[in-house]
Design goal:
By secondary structure, the protein is α/β, with parallel strands linked by helices. It contains 12 helices and 8 strands. Strands 3-2-1-4-5-6-7-8 form an 8-stranded mixed sheet, sandwiched between helices. Strand 1, helix 1 (32-43) and strand 2 form a beta-alpha-beta unit.
């Protein structure tokens, strides 16, 4: 179908890097961007761990990935050079599930080289998790915040050249964070809650990169990206929380004027494999290149405050010595 898309807005990852012997954890890999990223990295020889909550859907995704190579791979060559596909149960709505998934990964996987925090919800109705956090905040930010901290010690032992990739959105420019009402109990907006969680993804990336540097933890770099406007299942709640037909209209707009899922996955793949950014960390990417962040995303004190608030919501005490802090986080799994 003809559209107004242009090559300027749909840069493709051209890296030919192989990932043989590498283990990649992707949250929310049963559909959309996560599934397309899994398909690409599987074709590069990686052991792909699909960390998801719907087992039936994830098994179907695995069959799809096995039977349908990415466009840059010839089908008759596909099965000879691929990696592995493995499922781990992860429900980001439950911090207990996050801890159990991390524990299973640490016990069963000898190494983790790439962590892709991709899962997310958007336009979600107001609801609190069993942990008392607003759903969008926990699924999009807090759950990944905790998972990352729990897996960091394993990644330290797996390096060098390990990567943590966080999927954000340009929606972050629309909002500030209300630290006095982080769970939006006083005033809730499904659009604002999503935008706040995406700002949190960027601030978390920058704060984590700074802490790794200060703690002299080398070989783990952190990336955050805007994939573009895409018609994926993340928008499935729009009819209920915005207006009837919102999901259809968003999908129609995305298909006509924006990116398809394969195009949307390119910056995610780029941040995961591109050799030219192997030594970059704490930066924000769009269309397979570094992009500028605006407003509160550039505020170091804002990022520090979010880190402290996130720790408080997870019953953690932020410590000056990051290595000691990670040991404290790890004890939560016991």
């Amino acid at each position: 179908m003809w559209s107004l898309k242009s090559w300027f807005f749909n840069e493709m990852c051209t890296s030919k890097a192989r990932l043989d012997g590498k283990t990649v954890v992707i949250t929310g890999a049963s559909s959309g961007l996560g599934m397309e990223t899994a398909r690409d990295l599987y074709a590069r020889g990686a052991r792909i761990i699909l960390a998801c909550r719907n087992m039936e859907k994830t098994n179907k995704a695995i069959e799809d990935i096995k039977n349908n190579p990415p466009s840059w791979v010839k089908k008759d060559q596909y099965k000879n050079n691929v990696g592995e596909l493995v499922i781990y149960f992860l429900d980001l709505r439950s911090l207990k599930s996050v801890r159990e998934c991390a524990k299973n990964l640490l016990i069963n996987e000898p190494a983790i080289h790439i962590l892709i925090n991709n899962a997310g919800v958007a336009a979600y109705p107001y609801e609190k998790t069993e942990d008392g956090n607003q759903m969008t905040l926990q699924v999009n930010h807090l759950g990944h915040f905790l998972l990352t901290l729990l897996l960091l010690p394993k990644m330290q032992l797996s390096g060098p050249n390990c990567r943590i990739v966080n999927v954000a959105s340009l929606a972050y420019i629309c909002v500030d964070l209300d630290f006095d009402d982080i769970n939006m109990e006083k005033s809730y907006s499904p659009v604002k809650s999503y935008a706040q969680s995406k700002l949190a993804n960027i601030l978390f990336t920058k704060a984590l990169a700074q802490r790794l540097k200060e703690a002299n933890i080398h070989g783990i770099n952190v990336y955050v990206l805007h994939p573009g406007i895409i018609d994926t299942e993340i928008n499935r709640y729009g009819d209920n929380t915005l207006f009837p037909g919102a999901t259809f209209l968003h999908g129609l707009y995305a298909r006509l004027f924006c990116k398809n899922v394969v195009q949307g996955a390119q910056t995610l793949i780029y941040c995961s494999v591109a050799e030219e950014i192997a030594n970059e960390t704490g930066l924000y990417y769009s269309n397979c290149s570094v992009a500028t962040t605006y407003r509160k995303a550039n505020d170091h004190q804002y990022a520090e405050k979010l880190w402290d608030v996130s720790c408080r919501l997870l019953d953690l005490e932020p410590k000056e010595d990051f290595n000691i802090f990670l040991e404290t986080v790890s004890r939560q799994m016991l």
